[in-house]
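Morning, I've got a small favour to ask if you have a moment. I've dropped the whole record in just underneath, so have a look.
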Amino acid sequence: MTPKHAEPAVVLLSGGLDSATVLAIAREQGYALHALSFRYGQRHQYELTRAKQLAEAAGARHLIFDVDLSQFGGSALTADIDVPKHTSAEEIGSEIPVTYVPARNTVFLSLSLAYAESIQANDIFLGVNALDYSGYPDCRPEYIDAFTRLANLATKAGVDGEDAIRIHTPLIHWTKAQIIARGIELGVDYSLTTSCYDPQQDGQPCRHCDACLLRLRGFQENGLHDPTIG
């Protein structure tokens, strides 16, 4: 149960494995949870169904914000571009993939910062990861550090010096296997999550995109079956 006078925190909640784990971590730390999801023109909008379920299970307030990045295109997640598929996680390259959405985390963090200020929250939780990920530049520690500096220059809380804006990225140096292990400890129901970039209409994962393969490897390394795969 959240303490009666708990400090509020904004948690970016995509409906995926990583954000579900971060939501559980923020809950364990005693924050009053304000989950924020985005309908940004993504082809995998099924994730919003999962985000809603995760927020309800965690007792979090949940807001879905519309910002249509598909108007810009430039990504396999928001335009008519094929999502790359592989047979194993070892085939995933080190270059920035076509599933990278231009400036997505900068847009999301900017909006989460506005939301945090509006509810007088100084803490923002984000499930970025710099190990088992697809090479996105806005998932790196140096990016998060730079945005944190910007946040404290650009907000009333930061300028007044009352309390600094803090961006929490507890998973940033963890492998998918470590993330899943921690989530299991915290009681995360991973059957409520989705990671697939190119799911079927009923939400069934494709099993071959980067996100599916990294997720599958994480469960396998824990000796577990992915509960979203029948």
